[in-house]
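Intended use. Records like the one below are meant for learning the mapping from a protein sequence to its folded structure. Do not use them to infer anything beyond what is encoded.
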Amino acid sequence: MAKKHLVKVTYYDFLKLLWAVVIFFLALMIWVKEWWEPSSMIETDYYEEFSGEDSLDKGISLDEEEHGAALDKSTAQKLASVCALHQDWCNKIVWSGYFSDYDKIGYVSQYFVIFNFLDRGITEGSDIKKEFKTLVINSNAGKRRWWATWTKITINLDSFTDISQFWQVLTHEFWHIVDLWVLKGNSMAKNSNYTEFWKVKFSVDDPSLEYYKYSWNSEDIRKSTAQEKDFCSQYWMSNPFEDFAECHNLYLNNRKLFRTMASESSVLKNKFNFFANLFGYQILWDNKTALPYNWWRPWDTTVLI
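Structure written out for the chain above:
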């Protein structure tokens, strides 16, 4: 009868095997984490690079925009002539309530400039022209000022204290479309700390997550170190999505104000540089609103007109 040869495993051998397995899985986790996480959006420190006063006005002004002529109402007597620039963009508008053609020309022109800027200016993500479906402009009473879904923006003009807020509100709301549909990751793995209308959809390599993590541990929990000076407005310290949209609006329409605020906060400098890198340091225009104090924060950036 043949002899059976048994491998004798000592306690020491078992520990070595256990440590080898642990080291293997740790290395695998590190590799997977690095593979999943995107590179930082901040490649250039624009805050420091353009710190001089002469550089504050760099960007795209309305007069330089492709559709800037549409804002000159003397050159746009008919709504059809404005929509002829981009009929497909006009087809996205749903008018609710009464509007004269003159009113429509003003709103359409502003929408065109902002939409065109985002289409041309965003250097990452998918095509906003395909992702954005509907703009509802409502003049009826009794509604909140605005809201946005994945692909739709609703603006309720009767709830505005000043109709000129349309520009700022539309800039703010467009960022929700960009955040949810344009800036998207590719990984199948999901980050459960942030949701899209209570559904876990953010890929772990979604570029938006880099911004959220500046001030937030999750969509409901701010970092314990977060301070009011780390945000662009007081009202939208409520969640990371509104934080994102408010700073987006501030950067594109009041960059000088944003820069002044950021001088008081390294976190806000990161937020400034996030947008500066995303847009190649371009802006819609600079309102140049003055600050009473560097640490002051407006209640709501959409009312800075």
